[in-house]
């Protein structure tokens, strides 16, 4: 693997998963490989999985904090191995469903069966949710030893949710659903680690360029993403924080969020702390607002309004010598990039100050490589300003 991307590694030891419905194949891979590309028109990260019998490639939008895999079953889902998950089954409780579709008023098909376990699949790009049948089908994926791609392996009964065709609105062209890597027992990392008995860890390496590929590696390192360089050897850590309140468009009461939050303590621009209401940086455990999440579905860094204003004002102060140009929505302040290099200040450096105390077994860690220190860059492209965390958007 030769990739120029930013690596995030997630450990999650929250759950011990024993999923009796997943049959293990005789060859046991150490890790699995899912290539990720960035779609130029939507800026969404896309991956392709092979699902169903006969196997077909299914293009999906990658959602790091998404709850599970959901695909459109209304249009074009043909498979002889599809199985609806019955209400009150082991798989249904693993999925933490609190809903049962007793009767579907149509002829039976994937997504429409009687007495089926139901979940609330979520388009996290448009924030639209619906109700959908929980099903199982075969998924095949390439294994890896951490350096090179290995043989293709299958998970015969991967649990997913049937979305609807309208739920695809707002996703990249040709996409048939979303693949969630979040903190649930039926997200892809959880099911893959249960199926092949490897550590419940995964790494995601995303490219900010639409020309370079990224990858998700399910399982433990080494992660040889550059020739002869195991990036798992040069990591710095910050704890992942659980938001006890769901952040999905639709959810069952009492569900925690499946998204990954980190503890940003302050924001500095050129070494100076940006004045902001720091209570907004902490998750409100009753309403679930506040805190800092890592997302792959927003194309740029999104900040709460007052924090954003404070950051933009600090940025304007640092770039006082640089001519402003008309703002390009949704950005509030834009500068002429041809003038930045010639100034004394150059491009301001924005840093998120993180909690760096690694607390073992507290529900997971976000790990970063040295070249990615959660230093947020203000990238100034042709006369407009973009705020982005490299590879994190
Ligand atoms: C569900 O059950 C009803 C009543 O038994 C039946 O009429 C209907 O066809 C069934 N629907 C499906 C999708 O199997
Ligand atoms: C800071 O934010 C919290 C949460 O939104 C709010 O309750 C509080 O009033 C704010 N404090 C100030 C000084 O604006
Ligand atoms: C940016 O600055 C250059 C050099 O001063 C100038 O030629 C150009 O017109 C400016 N662009 C905008 C959008 O103002």
TrEMBL record:
Residue stretches making up the Peptidase A1 domain: 45-393
Molecular-function annotations in GO: aspartic-type endopeptidase activity
Signal peptide: 1-25
Gene3D superfamilies for the chain: Acid Proteases
One GO BP: proteolysis
Pfam family, one: TAXi_C
Keyword Signal: yes
Protein name as annotated: Peptidase A1 domain-containing protein
Species per Swiss-Prot/TrEMBL record: Hevea brasiliensis
UniProt lineage: Eukaryota, Viridiplantae, Streptophyta, Embryophyta, Tracheophyta
């Amino acid at each position: 693997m030769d990739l120029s991307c930013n690596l995030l590694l997630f450990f999650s030891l929250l759950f011990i998963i024993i999923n009796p419905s997943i049959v293990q194949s005789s060859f046991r891979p150490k890790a699995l490989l899912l290539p990720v590309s960035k779609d130029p028109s939507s800026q969404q990260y896309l991956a392709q999985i092979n699902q169903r019998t006969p196997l077909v490639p299914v293009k999906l939008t990658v959602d790091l904090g998404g709850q599970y895999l959901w695909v459109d079953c209304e249009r074009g889902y043909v498979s002889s191995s599809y199985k609806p998950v019955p209400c009150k089954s082991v798989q249904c409780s693993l999925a933490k469903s609190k809903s049962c579709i007793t009767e579907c008023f149509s002829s039976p098909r994937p997504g429409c069966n009687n007495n089926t376990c139901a979940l609330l699949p979520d388009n996290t790009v448009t924030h639209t949710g619906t109700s959908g049948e929980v099903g199982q089908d075969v998924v095949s994926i390439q294994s890896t030893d951490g350096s090179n791609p290995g043989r293709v392996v299958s998970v015969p009964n991967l649990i997913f949710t049937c979305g609807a065709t309208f739920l695809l609105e707002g996703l990249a062209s040709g996409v048939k659903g979303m693949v969630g890597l979040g903190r649930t027992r039926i997200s892809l990392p959880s099911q893959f680690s249960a199926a092949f008995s490897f550590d419940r860890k995964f790494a995601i390496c995303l490219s900010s360029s639409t020309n370079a590929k990224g990858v998700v590696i399910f399982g433990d390192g080494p992660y040889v993403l550059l020739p002869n360089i195991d990036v798992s050897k040069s990591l710095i850590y910050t704890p992942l924080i659980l938001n006890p309140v769901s952040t999905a468009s639709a959810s069952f009461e009492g569900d925690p969020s499946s998204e990954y939050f980190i503890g940003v303590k302050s924001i500095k621009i050129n070494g100076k702390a940006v004045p902001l209401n720091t209570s907004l940086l902490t998750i409100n455990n009753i309403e679930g607002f506040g805190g800092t999440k890592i997302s792959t579905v927003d194309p740029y860094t999104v900040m709460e309004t007052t924090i954003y204003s404070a950051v933009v004002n600090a940025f304007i102060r640092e770039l006082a010598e640089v001519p402003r140009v008309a703002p390009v929505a949704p950005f509030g302040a834009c500068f002429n990039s041809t003038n930045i290099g010639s100034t004394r200040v150059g491009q301001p450096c924005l840093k998120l100050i993180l909690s760096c105390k690694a607390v073992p077994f507290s529900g997971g860690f976000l790990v970063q490589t040295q070249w990615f220190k959660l230093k947020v860059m203000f990238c100034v492209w042709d006369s407009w300003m973009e705020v982005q965390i490299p590879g994190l958007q």
